[in-house]
Amino acid sequence: MSEPHETHEGTPYDVIVLGAGPVGQNVVDRARAAGLSVAVVERELVGGECSYWACVPSKALLRPVIAVADARRVEGARQAVTGRLDTDGVFARRNRYVTDWDDSGQALFVKSIGADLFRGHGRLDGPRRVTVTRDDGAQQTLTARHAVAIATGSRPALPDIPGIEEARPWTNRHGTDSSTVPARLAIVGGGGVGIEMATLWQGLGSHVTLLARRRLIPRMEPFAGELVSQGLTEAGVNVRIGVQVSALRRPDPEGPVTLTLDDGSELEADEVLFATGRTPATGDIGLDTVGLTPGSWLDVDTTCLVDGVEGAWLYALGDVNHRALLTHEGKYQARTAGDAIGARAAGRPLDDGPWGDHATTADQHAVPQVFFSDPEAAAVGLSAQQAADAGHRVRIVDLDFNAAQGANLYADGYQGHARLVVDLDREVLLGATFVGPGVSELLHSATIAVAGEVPLKRLRHAIAPFPTVSEIWLFLLAAYQRDQENPQNAST
């Protein structure tokens, strides 16, 4: 399907954006706000992976699962949960949130802000040139006066193991667009996608086995993976850590798949989902025409300009620069880079120093992430190990959530844990991690504290409303103060 636009071969734009997902849309919006003309090229659905196969559908599917789990944690409400989830209703809810995979609304948004939308496969064709090939084979060449921004995202990375093609494994796309509940589902990978998919499909009625080479969600504090593993196990998931898949067999395309594990055992499942990382969607976008390696992650500076390309015109935003494969992080980069593109186009000086308007400083210091498992796991900034490795002198403050009455009112016998990582020399937060029901709502306050480098002396004056889960802040800060007064009892 092509979109109407009044353009001609070689028509110049100020900015060309490859990819119309949330990241691409944000850089389009900021460039248009700067008064620049913009063309955006999309080869799949306008709205990208996040809108149709990742963040939006997964959270739409997970919410009913978590809502029932929350109800079961409250006396009086638990007795009202008398049956299983209505899977047809859950899938219908998902379908509404992904607009039945119809992107016309998002396409209208792109055009409403004054950008020209080109549907087709966009490839760089030398400096500041992009060739768009439509589904019917017709081609059009666009040129950019100031910038080309790559926001093509990433794809699932499947391991090279015998039988993987025969097994026809699920990826995150199958895990979020399927409307059939497999009786037995094997999930390979213990990162964020793996634990969310395990939470989701176990809640929908699958018997789930989760296989991980090492501890779950390894980029978070160790206790996060331990508590999530405990929660999954209590929900009925068979969590197996320290194993790898060495081969797959599925001789009957409609039959079960057999996984051979490196410990010599075998596991049979009706479907297998691989959540084993991502690879950049840059293999066929013409990187070689500007001296870059096709299929590579793209290194960028603080304004998201691609390293190794002369002329300050090529930007890489979101997953493709591999800084943090998170939609909100990519949108932050896009807003910052879009403003930098506007400043460069107008000949204005850049504010690209730390925390400047044109610097993606948060990439290194204050990236928040949430996994909507049960319990939820949320973190921002540095873990204790990362802070130590970076040479910071730190104090660690750990606390169980049952110290806060608001948490106990939220869920009977609330189980969760919180950690602050404090820079002792400046007395500011370097990182925070929360694990427990509903803790995702605590993360933005922690992000503000980390990004704003709020002194703990000042942070103690931020009054937590009673009785809420956020009371944990009061107890964490009080524990830090006690540690300062009695350092022999503190963790460093």
Written account of the structure:
This protein has 492 residues and is of the alpha/beta class. The chain has three domains: 172 residues, 3-Layer(bba) Sandwich (FAD/NAD(P)-binding domain), CATH 3.50.50.60; 114 residues, FAD/NAD(P)-binding domain (3-Layer(bba) Sandwich), CATH 3.50.50; 115 residues, Enolase-like, domain 1 (2-Layer Sandwich), CATH 3.30.390. The protein contains 16 helices and 21 strands. The strands form five sheets. Strands 1, 2, 3, 4, 5, 6 and 16 form a seven-stranded mixed β-sheet that branches. A five-stranded antiparallel β-sheet has the order 17-18-21-20-19, with helices on both faces. Helix 3 crosses helix 8. The chain is globular and about 65 Å long. The protein starts with 11 loop residues before the first strand and ends in a 7-residue tail after the last helix. The N terminus is likely disordered.
Quick structural overview:
Residues 13-328 form the FAD/NAD(P)-binding domain. The chain is an alpha/beta fold and 492 residues long.
Largest sheet data: 7 strands, mixed
N- to C-terminal separation?
A: 59 Å
Query: How many discrete structural domains?
Result: 3
| Poorly predicted segments | 1-8
Tell me, briefly, the overall form: globular
- The total beta strand count reads 21
> What is the alpha-carbon Rg in Å?
24 Å
What's the overall average pLDDT, rounded?
94
Reading off the top of the CATH hierarchy, the class of the largest domain is best stated as Alpha Beta
CATH topology of the largest domain: FAD/NAD(P)-binding domain
- Amount of helix: 25-40%
- Looking at the overall shape, the CATH architecture of the largest domain is 3-Layer(bba) Sandwich
Structural class: alpha/beta
Number of helices: 16
Strand residue percentage? 15-25%
| Fourth CATH level, the homologous superfamily of the largest domain | FAD/NAD(P)-binding domain
